[in-house]
Every structure is written in C-alpha cells, then in structure tokens.
UniProtKB/TrEMBL annotation:
Keyword set includes Ligase: yes
UniProt region (Disordered), positions on chain: 278-297
Transmembrane regions listed in the UniProt entry: none
Domain of life (superkingdom): Bacteria
Enzyme Commission number(s) from the entry: 6.5.1.1
Alphabetized InterPro entries for the sequence: LigD_pol_dom (IPR014145), NHEJ_LigD (IPR052171)
GO molecular function: DNA ligase (ATP) activity
Keywords associated with the record: Ligase
Record domain DNA ligase D polymerase: where: 27-280
Protein name: Non-homologous end-joining DNA ligase
One Pfam entry name: LigD_Prim-Pol
Source species: Streptomyces chitinivorans
C-alpha cells in the first residue's frame, strides 16, 4: 500500500503492480498515472455528472461489473449526490469533481467512466446530444465514419455543431452541445435523425435494435439520450484486451479513416495527441457553442 497526498487529500493506493491489462503489461499503477495525465481535460467533462463505473479488480481478462452505487469505505470528501431512478426511487452516486476522487476511483480499478447527457441538479435536462455508432461485422469503424459524416451534415442543417470521438471499443460517438432541453425531446429528435440517415443510406445504416438486422451495417443508437442512459466519457479507458481510450478525434481524421486501426488509440497515445490537438471536445463545454433543438426546445 502506498499513501499519497493529492490536493490535500490522502489517498491509499494498493496493488499498483497488478496487471489489469495482462496482454499489454498495463498495471493499476499505469491506470493511476494515465488518469493523472488526462485529468485536466477529463474532469470538465465529468463535472456535475453522476458517474457509473465499470470495475475490473482482477483485470480485463477476469470478471468486470458496472457499479453505480457508492461503495463502502468511500472517503467523506468524495462528492456524493442523490439521483432519481425509474419509479421515483433515488440512489446515491459518486460525482467525480476533482483529481483526488478520480485517483480514488482508479485505485478501485474503475477503468471505465460513464455519464448521462445531463448535469446535476438539472436531472433530465440534456446539455448535449449523442449518437453511438455501433458497427455490425464485417462493418468496422471505417463505415461508422461515413455515417458520422452524414449525421454531422444533418445536425449542421439544423444549426447544431457536432464533434466526434472513438468509443474506445469498436465504434464512434457523434456529439452536439445543446442548450438544456428535456431528455425525452432530445431522444425523439435523435431518433428522427437516425431514421433519416437510415432512409438515405439503407445499405449502410440501421436504426433498429435487433442484432440480426445489423450485419454489415452501422447501428445508430440514439437511445443513449434518454435520461436514464449513460455513455462512455471522453478519455475513459475501456475494458478491452488493450488499454484503449475513448478518444476525441477531428473531422479531418474521421474523413481520412481508411483502416480500422487508423482510429484506435491507447493510453500511451494520449499525451502526444493532447499536445497536438488539445481537447477537440472543448466546445462541448462552452455554453456559447450550444444550439437549440429545431423545434425550439
């Protein structure tokens, strides 16, 4: 066990040499180092959003699990908030507001960080829209990029700027900043755009959930805009064989993607990308960039 003081908070770090990504030799200590290195750009995207963690205490080759509830032994200085659930019930969830909390979570082997499209205290009032583009084999992220560009054009037509990031898994996310709007209205608008894309590109796009329809196509998951749903946060690690990261990308990179490996980034790639690009998703955090839904919501 190692004790460290970060921003006045004492954090106990344990089993830092445990290989959480055995195929890459990427240890828990490396996870802590990675999240420390990206905290400046990551934390603004987490601020005031309840976080759901995907934890893999014994590494990505063993069992992992989604954890929404506040774990026992959580330090008193970690921000915890009440969040409503379906049926009117409430749960207590962690809100990652600072570097000590981020590193405390990393020590829990919370590799993945997932957040809703809204911020507390305005539950259910989305300040961003997201499309999760999921390729059905043999389609890959290359086909996702073509779909992303079509969605960008549709959003631009409606006066909404958009930005992209890899999912860190197989697909791509397209996001647009919004003036806060009811999540149900946002999900309805996103569904309409997904249907429009599917009608325009029937050989490439599917907007229906059944997996049997997805072979060789890109499924546009618009449902993550519902107030109960979450999406992998920018810069989060993913529970994959390698320490891949949900990485913001430029539209030029999206347009230039010719091979699946062109848009695969691991933790070791992020320092140079941040030096070169900064945070391509920074406009999502700027209220002046936010647009209205076309119906004025």
């Amino acid at each position: 066990m190692t004790s460290t003081v970060v921003e006045g908070r004492t954090i106990e770090l344990t089993s830092l040499d445990r290989a959480l990504y055995p195929a890459s030799g990427f240890t828990k200590g490396d996870v802590v180092d990675y999240y420390t290195s990206v905290a400046e750009v990551l934390l603004p995207h987490l601020r005031d959003r309840p976080v759901s963690f995907v934890r893999a205490p014994r590494g990505v080759e063993a069992e992992s699990f989604m954890a929404k509830h506040v774990p026992s032994g959580t330090p008193k200085w970690v921000t915890v908030r009440e969040v409503h659930r379906v049926g009117g019930k409430t749960d207590r969830q962690v809100v990652v507001q600072d570097l000590p909390t981020l590193l405390w979570a990393a020590n829990l082997s919370a590799l993945e960080l997932h957040t809703p499209q809204w911020r507390l205290p305005d539950e259910g009032m989305a300040d961003r829209l997201v499309f999760d583009l999921d390729p059905g084999a043999p389609a890959t992220i290359v086909q996702c990029c073509a779909v992303a560009r079509r969605l960008r054009d549709l959003l631009e037509r409606d006066g909404l700027p958009s930005y992209a990031k890899t999912s860190g898994s197989k697909g791509l996310h397209v996001l647009a900043p919004l003036r806060p709007a009811d999540s149900e209205a946002v999900a309805g608008y996103a569904e309409r755009l997904a249907r429009e894309a599917a009608e325009a590109l029937p050989d490439l796009v599917v907007d229906q959930v059944p997996r049997r329809l997805r072979e060789g196509k890109v499924f546009i998951d618009y449902g993550q805009n519902l107030w109960t749903r979450t999406t992998a946060a920018p810069y989060t690690l993913r529970v994959r064989p390698r320490p891949t990261v949900s990485t913001p990308v430029t539209w030029d990179e999206v347009a230039g993607c010719e091979q699946p490996g062109d848009l695969v980034f691991t933790a070791g790639d992020l320092a140079s990308r941040l030096e070169r690009h900064g945070d391509p998703l920074a406009p999502l955090l700027d209220p002046s960039r936010a647009g209205r839904l076309p119906d004025g919501s």
